Amino acid sequence: MFKQVDLKEAVRRSIQTEKNAMDFYLRGAARMKNADARKVFELLAREEREHAHWFHDIYPGDDIPDLEAFLNAGPAVDSDWLRDLEKVNTAGFDERKAMALAMEKEKKLAEHLRELAVKIESPEVRAVFEQNARSTDNHYQLIESEYARLMGMVHESDIDTFVRE
Q: How far is CA 146 from CA 45, 155, 161, in A?
């Protein structure tokens, strides 16, 4: 399966990805006018920070000694999360576009985490990747629900009312 060097790199990249996602949600939240949408992105930013901690806890290297300092540093210049958000800004930012982009990013991330998990020999490390994939699925569902609300669609909690009528 993964050699130690490969495992170290996979976990390091996962920490960076969580930071990139956190920065994406913080920057997106700062641009949102809709208070509920902003709260969703702020919640997701906090959860991405927590995910970075999960990966840092299993990180076999010592080159990220202070995770909080790393997470509080400025965004990565090569972050595809922020690059894609800037494209949304250029096209005319709105909450729906940001939500659609966030769903796309979360879906791809969950797939990537599952692909990595099956290649990891260590049950403890594999479990962190699998747990993060499940949490990422939950992020997708939360964003999807908020997107539906922004679009004026029937909320899943009201679906029984509309199906019966």
A: 15, 9, 19
pLDDT score of 1: 53
- Please identify which residue in the block is written with the tokens 């599952």: 114
Tally of residues, the chain? 165
**3-state per-residue secondary structure call for the chain:** CCCHHHHHHHHHHHHHHHHHHHHHHHHHHHHCCCHHHHHHHHHHHHHHHHHHHHHHHHCCCCCCCCHHHHHHCCCCCCCHHHHHHHHHHHCCCCHHHHHHHHHHHHHHHHHHHHHHHHCCCCHHHHHHHHHHHHHHHHHHHHHHHHHHHHCCCCCHHHHHHHHHC
| Residue 74 C-alpha from the chain's centroid | 17
Q: With contact defined as beta carbons under 8 Å apart, do 156 and 146 qualify?
A: no
Please write the tens of the pLDDT for every residue from 10-41: 899 999 999 999 999 999 999 999 999 999 99
Q: Which residue has the tokens 């806890």?
A: 57
pTM confidence score: 0.87
- Residue 138, Cβ density class (10 Å: 0-12 exposed, 13-18 middle, ≥19 buried): middle
Residues 6+ apart with CB under 8 A from 66: none
